[in-house]
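Contributing new records

If you add data, match the layout below exactly. Sequence lines come first and carry their own label; structure lines follow with theirs. Keep one chain per record. Anything else will be rejected by the validation script.
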Amino acid sequence: MRLIECVPNLSEGRDLGVIDRITQVVSQTKGIKLLHRTSDYDHNRSVLTFTGQANALREAVLIMYEEVANLIDMRDHQGEHPRIGAVDVCPFVPLGATKMTECRDLAEEVASIVGPKHALPVYLYEEAALHEERRRLENVRRGQYEGLERKLENAAWHPDFGPGEFNPRLGATIIGARKILIAYNVNLRSQDLGVAKKIAAAIRESSGGLRNVKALGINMAHLDKVQVSMNLTDYQATPIHRVFELIRAEAARYGVEVAESELIGLAPADAFLSAAAHYLHLEDFSEQRTLEYLIHASG
């Protein structure tokens, strides 16, 4: 089967009844397998992970946008995570033999439907981007929901699909096709947001840190901690353990300890096998040395 993963990020993480309803209609779509959901109070954000073939995914995502349009109102939204709309970002990720072009085509098809239907400005990003300056998610999201009305007045930011008018209830949405990434956060035993922001600046690629790392410093008031919130866009080139150790070293400069780290959504097993091999000093170790891999491979 040519499977595709969809990982929509929704701008609601506090009213779990809303997320329950959206999750329910997605999971009940024929041909869809819901793999995971997570919600965070401080981020005020939820992430769903589900898979299916292109036709089933298209139906599930269209139903999801319908439910979000009825249940989430951005005029009431407050949260720590950057966002531009109710469905902030909706990426399609190829799995197995699926080609990136299939995800790109699906992203364009979904965008062409939800934009006009919900009077929703839609931007395409990453491998689905129609404009090079829109390839990077952070470029499209810059200014966030609060700056969207003014952004839409700029002809350079006319949406790829949907109207060019501000939708105060839903904001805008960003749809795309991309490779697997890992959403990974590290919480610090500190309430000093300045420290988290300095560490994020030290480790992210855009300001001279590690390649394939995007990072922000975020206040987690609900936990009485601050967080370095990250997307690792190529975990094989820049493994998790390297990122974690750099954060720990940078935090020590400010007399701060790491409290814990967390995974948002799902991640490939080999990302954690790599970390295990690093910390245990295992030589010549790979997934082929695990019992589960050999059992699965033998059928």
